[in-house]
Amino acid sequence: MPLEPNIPQLDSPDFETLYRQLLLRAQRYNPEWTDFNESDPGVTLLQLVAWLTEGLKFSMNQVPERNYLKFLQLLNLELEPAQPATAHLVFTANPDVPQNPGVPQRTPIAGQSPDGDQFIFETEEGIDLIRMPLAHTQVFDGNSFIDETLSNEEQDATFQPFGWRASVGSALYLGFAPPREPVGRPFPTQMRFRVFLTPTADKGRVPSSREMIEPPAPPVRLVWEYQPTGSTRWRQLSVYRDDSSAFTREGYIIVEAPRDIEPMLNVGEITDPMYWVRCRIYDGNYPAGTVPEIAYLRSNVVPAISLTTVRNEIVEISNGLPKQRVSLQNAPVQAKTLKLELTEPDGEPEMWEQLDDLLAADPDKACFILNATAGEIRFGDGTNGRIPLAGTEIVALEYRYGGGKAANLDPGLINAPQVTLIGVDEVTNVRPAVGGADEQTVTELRKRAPSKLRSRGRGVSAEDLTELAKQAGGVARATAIGLMNPNYRGVDVPGAVTVVIVPDNKDIPPRPSTDQRRSVAQYLNDRRMLTTELYVVGPQYTEIKVEALVHHSPYAAPDAVKEAVIKAINYALNSPQRPFGQDFNPSTLYDVIYNVPDVRNAVIHHVYANGTRHTISEQVEIEPDGLVYGFDHDIAMTPYEDR
To answer: Right CATH number for 130-299 from 2.60.120, 3.40.50, 2.120.10, 2.60.40?
Structure first.
């Protein structure tokens, strides 16, 4: 039997209720008291008692809440810290500098949100830039050249880097414009590219979580080549890294750069002199339906994360007391980045270890715990963990801080280097930053605590995987569907589980990026059962368009009412409370429209689901991993007339 009906409901009367109850009792137990005016001293005493009682009851009512949170703390269930956002930054070098410029690791690049808040992103890797711009992109499909320069430059276009057949000999040609006055070596020691796919690129086979993290060997062997100076033969270049798995997924490609190269004339459709590098299919072939199609290829790309690095910060001088607390100057602190060094008087510097808790620490163990959200460091009491001696200098050698949902900046907003980068003209993010999440609230912790205790960090049931997916960062909603393999829809596949995630962003509809799906897949893959075949996908969205005639009040502003109707329809369709896979009944929109102020009558003529017209009585079937969203409604307005 559920415990909820047996849990006593605590009383929480306000001051006015208590005061009125005291007045009634005063008349009953002291009938001689007849003056109840506000000026009477007895009334003043009743008001004082009511005020004190209200405060006492409020404090007592907090006891269950405090006990609940203390029990969570006892179970080591703490608030999840803020998570940083990740972006991929594209650098553009000045082609006329004498040598290829470099961008060191942890270079800070600032981005500003539309609200004016500034966020710092630091590059995760160092990079030597190709100073020459990628001016032309051509595809050789085995028979002819196709100029795909415009497709590669546009954000919304796509192209096939090896043609629609992608057979042996097909190649992608990249032409770099030579500088006006060639000086020094044209390329750095390595060339760095990133393959970008469209958000809806998963039209073919959906990879499992294991394949997303460790993709199988690509079906083809690609070679990168160039023509050395004075030669007509192409020379092969070494490939150091190919995260794209032969252009079939988003990822970085790092290739050896050519040394002795000169501009070439009349290559394919391009007659101008260019430094040409090509990627050619050497052997193998792509299976049917898996020929790569990409959004664009960019050079000089490096990942960056919304964290700021602090080094050699003098935190405090120890007072020698047990359970000493000291605070860093910046917060929230990214987990596992704090390096703390303590130097005792007349002693040598010593590194102290960060632990999750001090309960099992030995008395002499040099350790501490960190409240990452507040940036607070706590030391031991001499029984569990060593006490720093009085006068000990506490120095944070290095830590990183930052993060939060607001750091998920839109494309083009991360563009301001905070240090001088010689030879760099500009930097920007061509895709939105993803993965940033605010610190978990107490309400969210209370809501998720039972499922956390059930799962204990292990993905056994569908409910476990749903909860774990929400913990992965940047996920607003999630669901796990058992026996479902997205490659075989409508067929129960034993051992298969598909996790559907909705990103925490403002896009309509919100679709998870490939990087986010891969991040969630990696998080779940470490916690799934060995025999579970896990897939991470975005929802199958159904676009709903409504055609309706709305009669508004004669004195209401029609444009304002129309905007309110459209907003109400979109909220009902895009509601975060709407379950996955729930079929859509168009007639439910009547309640939504009639609840808008100043709407007197409405007639829904048609509802379109992904362009297919439905009558008001036709139910729209939604896939188990599907959701609906509203877009481009056609709402006509007319004044209401009484007849």
So the answer is: 2.60.120
